[in-house]
Amino acid sequence: MVRFVVFGEKMIANENLITDDMRAKAKELVKLARGNNGLAPVDTGRFWNDNNTASRDPFGKDIPQIPLGIGMLDECVFAELGISADFKRLLEDEAWAISLKKAYNDKAEKIVGRRLLSGKPVDKTRQYPPVKGLHDVFEAKNVWNSGSWWLEQSVRNEKELEELLCRVEERNKDLRTFILPPEWEKEKERLMKAGIKPAMYRGQRGPMTFAGSVYGIENTIFLILDNPKLAARFRDAIINTMLNIAGVLDKEAGYSETDAPKGFSFCDDNCAMFNPKMYEFFGYPILKAVFERYSPGPSDSRYQHSDSDMRHQLPALGRLGLTGVNFGPTLSVTEIREHCQRAVIDGQLAPFTFCRNEEENIVLELLRDFEQSKEKRGVRFATAGSVNNGSMLTGLRLVMSAIQRYGRYQVG
C-alpha cells in the first residue's frame, strides 16, 4: 500500500521511508537556501564533474554521488521567465523559442553553472522529409489539443477494427512505399552524400497506450476479454508493423539486420490501466518481440517509461530484462529494484513536487531515494515522469545541493 504524509501542507509518497533525521536535514537545507535568496549552497563546478563521473555508470562501486538525471525541458522557460505559456508557439516560432531559451540559459548559467537548453536553430537543409509512423499505418491522426499532441481514435467497434487490420496487413506487404514520402529518394541521395543518415526507429508509444489511442481504452479492455482472437490479431499487427518500419529505416540508413544499432524504448503510461493478465496477453509479447530483435544482448538498452502506478506490472516487466526504467512516483526504489535488477532507475521524485517547488519535499524525496540506493546503487535521481513548466532552476540547484551535501557514496 502506498502511504502519504502531509509535510509542509503537501503530500509525499511512502511516508514510512521518511525519518526524523531526513526531516531535520531537509529543514536545515531549505533554511540555508532561503537565507541566500533561494540559492542552496553548492560548488557547481565540483558537482558537475562528480555528476559526469557518476552518470557514466550509475551502478559503479566507486562513483562519488548519486547521479542527477533531471533534464529541464524547453517548456520550463515560461515559469522561469515569468511569461504566459504558449506551447504551440514554442514549437512553431523558432526565433521566439531561441530568444526564450537564451534568456533561460543565461539565468541557468548563474544558478546551476550550466546552460541547459539547446539554443541552436535547426538547419532544415540537413533534415530528411517526414516519414510516416506507426500511428499513420493504423490511421490515427496526431492532433494538437490542450497544449500537447494527442492521437485521435481511428476505429470504434470490432467491425471497424477488423477492416482496419485488413488495410494494415495489406500495407505491410510494401510498407516502404507507404511510409516514405515521394521526394525521399532525391533527398536521401543528397543527404547521404553529405554524410547524413536518416533517423532510425528506436522508440515508440507503448502498446497499451497505442492500442488505447487507436481503439479506445475501454474498447481495448473489452476486446481482450471478449474477443481474444481479434485482440491477438491487433497485437500481432502492431508487432509486425513495428518491426517492418524499423527494418525499412535501417535499410535506408545502410544497415543490415545484424549490424544495425541496438536499443529500444517505450513510453506506455496507460499500461497501468490493464490488469497483469491482460498486459501479458497484449503488451508483453510486443515488447518481447521488439527487444529480441533490437536489444538481444545484455548491454543493449531496454527502456520503459510509464509515469503511472506500475506496481501490478512489475513482475512481467522484470522478465523483460529492462536496463532503464522511469515509473510513477507511488513506487519506491526498493520495489522497482526487486523486479528490475539490472535497470538504472530514473526517479523517484514526484513531478508535482518539483514543479510546485515544494522545497522540503524535494530534499526529502532525494534523501529517501538515496537511502534506498546505497546497497545496489543504479539510481539516477530524476522526476518519476515528466519535467513540467513550473519546475524552477532554484529547485534544481536545491537538488544539486542536497546531493552534494547528503547524497555522496562511501567509495572504496
TrEMBL record:
The GO molecular function terms of this record are: uroporphyrinogen decarboxylase activity
Output the SUPFAM superfamilies linked to this UniProt entry: UROD/MetE-like
Q: Which InterPro entries does the record match to this protein? A: UROD/MetE-like_sf (IPR038071), Uroporphyrinogen_deCOase (IPR000257)
Q: Which domain of life is it from?
A: Bacteria
**What's an example Gene Ontology biological process for this entry?**
porphyrin-containing compound biosynthetic process
Q: Entry's Gene3D superfamilies?
A: 3.20.20.210
Task: Name the Pfam families on file.
Answer: URO-D
Residues of the Uroporphyrinogen decarboxylase (URO-D) domain: 206-405
User: What's this protein's name?
Assistant: Uroporphyrinogen decarboxylase (URO-D) domain-containing protein
Can you name the source organism? Candidatus Desantisbacteria bacterium CG_4_10_14_0_8_um_filter_48_22
Which classification does the entry list for the species? Answer: Bacteria, Candidatus Desantisiibacteriota
